[in-house]
Please model this.
Amino acid sequence: MGSLGDWPEPVVCVQSLSESGELVIPGQYIKPQSERPSFCLKEMNIPVIDMTGLITSREETMKQISEACREWGFFQLVNHGVGIELVDSVREIWREFFHEPMEVKQKYANTPKTYEGYGSRLGVEKGAILDWSDYYYLNYLPLCRTKWPAHPPSLRELMEEYTNEILKLGAVLLKVFSMNLGLKEDALQKAFGGKEVGACLRANFYPKCPQPDLTLGLSSHSDPGGMTFLLPDEQVFGLQIRKDNQWVAIRPARHAIIVNIGDQLQVLSNSIYKSVEHRVVANPDKQRLSLAYFYNPKNDILIQPISELITLKTPALYPPMTFEEYRRFIRTKGPRGKFQVESLKSQR
Model:
């Protein structure tokens, strides 16, 4: 297995494979039979929550959010306060980036040390089965030398505006989550590190795939961070979540932001809130783009179940671990998220 400084094998851009015209995908993208997408999906959708209800019908909306966090781990927010024009613009500016010439994108090629930049694989296990997608990973907080693409030229300005809106939305939701757990409204924000939270973006590009029944755009995983704000592709569906041991295909509401609980919130809530397995299927006819914004705890803060949630009947399910320790493990193993959390924590 490679170190976090190197990829174990040459990285191939999936977009170039898609545009080659080949009708058979390379073997390293073919999933084992048990992991291939099933099209016998449960007919339901994740909760859709109107954020204006926090003003007009607060108690009912708080209840809706609580049930979504406990039972689904996912929900869609409408009337979320982020401008519709801004939402549309950030999606389109990243679509422009992924259609820049390859020599432009390769200037930002990433490494597994931070993942920041343009890439096409996750994890450093040699011979791993890969996903049918490319991405751009962008660190924003803590403040650092962010690897901004120079083209399109308005990308940085738009993303800084969008980031500020997402950070405000994240702070509001952490208050709601805290109160729904019976805690002080600032409990989860403090557990995240106060104002010193982490924020990063992964822009996901899923090229057309000639054999979508054999692969996945993104393997089944749970998100390792705090919570995720996803701008889905409203024209091309692909996100699926596991509910009651069945896959549910998500149908995005117009201009909605999809929110999901990450592993760190599951730990802090002592598994009251669920970090749920999800995946992305490939499409044979259309490209797809989505933007996942991760609102994370401070890197070096210890994450463990909040003491007020621990009782004789509900003992702590997780020992302390910093987010950086956890993330380093995930970066080594790839998008397996919570599947290896229990074994990892039992070693401590």
In short: Residues 155-180 form the longest helix (26 residues). The first strand starts at residue 48 and ends at 50. Confidence is low (pLDDT under 50) at residues 341-348. Residues 10 and 282 are 23 Å apart (CA to CA).
